[in-house]
């Protein structure tokens, strides 16, 4: 089986599940372009822990980790199987890297996992292992987490980081819209695209100091950290392809990134 790319997906609001818009269209196209994975490991911005936690449930629940949304959203399920054997393999790789993982035998899929996966693979027939992120340990740690799991890409496992390329929920009340975008969004996403295209990992890991409007785009880190997981999982020299899925509500950039080995890009 060919080595799979790694992905970073901006999952947006939970309402993306009911109103997929451009994000749904881009994810459908992406799934059609990818080799079918044997399994998926997904690191979501909505599972935070002090140490790497690996979901080992045989049948992970669909977690509705939000409130105040339409009743139809709470009726949605993503009844995907888990992969306990893969979870054990993930544990082993993280342990070998000195990252001190722990297993969570009950963890389900939060909306940062099941919303984009439901758009990518609506049949819910590809086993999924969720993985936590550790916001207090920073971007370099998350990059190391991805690097530790990079061998799985050659074993038919799709590695995904799920967050949001910009994520400042304070701006819900700022009056932004499709007609009036927040002024920081495009400079920030342009900087990310430029540094990924240049392979400037050091600058990306130091985005807090170097990226324009970093504090406005991300008052806290957790929604960008999955990008570093996907980047680390891509391996050295991987090429980044930005997939533009628009800007939701005028301030939530919905960028998707696909990271491929250079040889794979050449052959496509």
Strand-helix topology:
Blueprint: E1 6-10, H1 21-33, E2 39-48, E3 53-55, H2 71-75, H3 84-96, E4 102-104, H4 111-120, E5 128-133, H5 138-149, E6 157-163, H6 185-198, H7 201-205, H8 207-210, H9 214-217, H10 225-234, E7 239-243, E8 247-248, E9 252-253, E10 256-260, H11 262-267
Parallel strand pairs: 1-6, 2-5, 2-6, 3-4
Antiparallel strand pairs: 1-10, 7-10, 8-9
Helix pairs in contact: 5-10
Cofactor: Zn(2+)
InterPro entries: Extradiol_dOase_DODA, Xdiol_dOase_suB
Domain Extradiol ring-cleavage dioxygenase class III enzyme subunit B: 31-236
Overall pLDDT: 95
Task: Give the amount of beta strand, in percent.
Answer: 15-25%
Amount of helix? 25-40%
Cα gyration radius (Å): 17 Å
* Shape descriptor: globular
Find the CATH topology: Protocatechuate 4,5-dioxygenase, Chain B
Terminal Cα separation, in Å? 15 Å
CATH class descriptor: Alpha Beta
Order of helices and strands: EHEEHHEHEHEHHHHHEEEEH
Q: Kindly state the number of beta strands.
A: 10
Would you identify the regions where 5 or more consecutive residues have pLDDT less than 50?
A: none
**Helix/strand/pairing class, anyone?**
alpha/beta
CATH superfamily: LigB-like
Domain Extradiol ring-cleavage dioxygenase class III enzyme subunit B: 31-236
Keywords: Dioxygenase, Metal-binding, Oxidoreductase, Zinc
Pfam families: LigB
Protein name: Dioxygenase
């Amino acid at each position: 089986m060919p080595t799979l790319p790694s992905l970073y997906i901006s999952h947006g609001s939970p309402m993306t599940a009911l109103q997929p818009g451009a994000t749904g269209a881009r994810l459908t196209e992406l799934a059609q372009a990818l080799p079918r994975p044997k399994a998926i490991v997904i690191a979501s911005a909505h599972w935070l822990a002090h140490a790497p936690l690996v979901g080992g449930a045989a049948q992970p629940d669909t977690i509705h980790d939000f409130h105040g949304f339409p009743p139809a959203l709470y009726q949605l399920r993503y009844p995907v199987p888990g992969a306990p054997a893969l979870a054990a393999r993930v544990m082993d790789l993280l342990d070998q890297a000195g990252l001190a993982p722990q297993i969570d035998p009950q963890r389900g899929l939060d909306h940062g996992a099941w919303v984009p996966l439901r758009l990518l693979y609506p049949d819910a027939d590809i086993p999924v292992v969720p993985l936590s992120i550790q916001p207090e340990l920073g971007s370099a740690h998350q990059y190391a987490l991805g690097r530790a799991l990079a061998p799985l890409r050659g074993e038919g496992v799709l590695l995904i980081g799920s967050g949001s390329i910009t994520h400042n929920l304070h701006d819900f009340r700022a009056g932004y819209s499709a007609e009036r975008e927040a002024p920081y969004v495009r400079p920030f996403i342009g900087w990310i695209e430029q540094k990924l295209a240049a392979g400037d990992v050091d600058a990306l890991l130091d985005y807090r100091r170097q990226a324009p409007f970093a504090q406005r785009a991300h008052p806290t880190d957790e929604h960008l950290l999955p990008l570093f997981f996907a980047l680390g999982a891509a391996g050295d020299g991987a090429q980044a392809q930005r997939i533009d899925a628009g800007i939701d509500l005028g301030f939530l950039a919905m960028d998707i990134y696909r990271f491929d080995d250079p040889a794979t890009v050449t052959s496509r």
